[in-house]
C-alpha cells in the first residue's frame, strides 16, 4: 500500500523520529535522455495533484543522490569541484519543509506547516511557487569549496547549482512532470522561511508538478 508523505510524517512524529525513509530511486525509465532534453520546457502552471513518494525520491536522487563510492566518500549525481559537495537540498509541499540527506537517501522534517505561500511572496509573487505541489530549494555552504579553491570556489559552487538544476528538470520530464528554475527571490526571506543555518545560502528554487494542459 502506498504511503503519502503526510502519513509517513505522522508516523515519524509518533515514533519521535525526524527521518523519513524514501523509496529507492528507480534507475530505469521509459524515456530516453535525448527525448527528455527535447521535451524540457519551463512549466509554470500545474495540475492540483500531489507527487508520489517515488517521484520525490527520484527528483532528490537526481539532484544529490549517491551514485558511487570512491575515496571513502559517496559520489553524487551532479559533479562537484574537488568532490566537496557544498550543496544542501530542501523541498516544500503542503505538508511542510523537508531536508534531503543524500548519504541515507532519507528526508528530515524541518517544519510541519505549508510554507509555499510565504516562499511565493519571497519570490516576488511568482505564483507557480505557491501552486506547485513541490518546490525544491538548492542551497550552498560556500566555505566547503572556498576552503580549497579560495574565491574561485564561489564560481564552482554556482556552476554546480546549474548541474543540479538541469538534473532535476530532466528527471521531472522523464517522470511526466515539469518544472521551472527560479533565481529571483529575496535571499534573507527564503533563509528565514526555511530556517536555514547561518552559513547556508539559497541559490535556486525549482517548482515541480504535473503540467496543466497547454501550459507549455
Brief summary:
The chain has 216 residues and is of the alpha+beta class.
CATH class: Alpha Beta
Structure annotation, total helices: 8
- Name of the CATH homologous superfamily: NADH Oxidase
Q: Estimate nothing, just give the exact number of structural domains.
A: 1
What is the overall silhouette?
globular
Report the span from N to C terminus: 34 Å
How much of the sequence lies in strands comes to 15-25%
Oligomerization state = single chain
CATH topology: NADH Oxidase
Which segments are poorly predicted (pLDDT under 50) over 5 or more consecutive residues?
A: 10-16
Q: Write down the Rg.
A: 17 Å
Q: pLDDT average, as an integer?
A: 92
Helix content: 25-40%
Main beta sheet: 7 strands, antiparallel
H and E order: HEHHEEEEEHHEHHEHE
Order of strands across the biggest sheet? Answer: 1-6-5-4-7-9-8
CATH architecture: 3-Layer(aba) Sandwich
What structural category arises from helix and sheet content? alpha+beta
E-strand count: 9
What this model shows, in words?
This protein is of the alpha+beta class. It has a single domain, classed as NADH Oxidase. It is built from eight helices and nine strands. Strands 1-6-5-4-7-9-8 form a seven-stranded antiparallel sheet. Helix 2 packs across helix 7 and helix 6 packs across helix 7. The protein is globular.
Key structural traits:
single chain; 216 residues; alpha+beta; NADH Oxidase; 7-stranded antiparallel beta sheet; 9 strands; globular
List the helices and strands and how they pair.
Layout: H1 5-14, E1 19-21, H2 33-39, H3 53-64, E2 66-70, E3 73-76, E4 87-93, E5 96-101, E6 106-111, H4 116-122, H5 127-131, E7 134-140, H6 143-149, H7 152-174, E8 178-179, H8 187-194, E9 201-209
Antiparallel strand pairs: 1-6, 2-3, 4-5, 4-7, 5-6, 7-9, 8-9
Helix pairs in contact: 2-7, 3-7, 6-7
